[in-house]
Design goal:
This protein is mainly alpha-helical and about 210 residues long. It has eight helices and no strands. The protein has one domain.
Length: about 210
């Protein structure tokens, strides 16, 4: 009996250690910055006439929509203005979101002026609307940016590549679980993020593509 109890306790402790570790891994791999960069490159590849054009447009879009905002956050962490690169504290999120919106707007302007594929321009415009919507919610409540981005990305991929990409839907649920498991969000905050991200992506991208 004692052995069984000991084994059960050990198993529980191992589970408690493993789940947060997996949740943190999911949080990093499917974070907004890498998710956005991969999405932009995929849509650029789908919409550009040549591989060279896809790389050129995709890298340009990723520079302003992913890399610049992320580097700003990393700099904020190093200078002590932000607690971490996921910006867990709601009150700290306003300025990074504003910087993100400004950066993506610059990228959107360059893409439009230089004749980027319409589909890619529509995607970047969707990101501007998504960031602005997230900022408005963030002023009063902590929404999950992770789940908003992943849900929006999954929606865009289905619209661009077709229904077979619905196979990625479980990733959205996985990110929801991970954000709750690491105690950065409540279930309501992750679900609201999913609803916002998917809705903005479906409406704005469909209207502009």
């Amino acid at each position: 009996m004692i052995t069984q109890d000991t084994d059960s306790t050990a198993a529980t402790r191992q589970s408690e250690l493993t789940h947060p570790r997996l949740a943190r891994l999911v949080t990093e791999i499917l974070a907004p910055a890498p998710t956005v960069a991969v999405l932009l490159l995929l849509v650029a590849w789908h919409s550009a006439p040549t591989t060279a054009d896809a790389v050129r447009w995709g890298v340009l879009a990723a520079l302003f929509a992913s890399f610049v905002p992320f580097l700003y956050i990393v700099r904020g962490v190093r200078r002590g203005r932000l607690t971490d690169h996921h910006v867990r504290i709601r009150e700290q999120r306003r300025l990074p979101l504003l910087v993100g919106i400004a950066s993506v707007l610059v990228g959107l302007t360059l893409l439009a002026l230089w004749g980027a594929p319409r589909e890619l321009v529509a995607l970047v415009a969707s990101m501007v609307v998504g960031l602005a919507s997230s900022l408005l919610v963030t002023l009063v409540w902590k929404i999950s940016i992770h789940t908003a981005v992943v849900a929006g990305a999954a929606t865009i991929l289905v619209l661009v590549f077709g229904p077979p990409l619905l196979i990625l839907s479980p990733l959205v649920a996985l990110v929801c679980w991970a954000r709750v498991a690491v105690r950065d969000h409540t279930p309501a905050q992750t679900i609201t993020g999913v609803a916002l991200g998917a809705t903005v992506a479906a409406v704005v991208f469909s209207l502009l593509r």
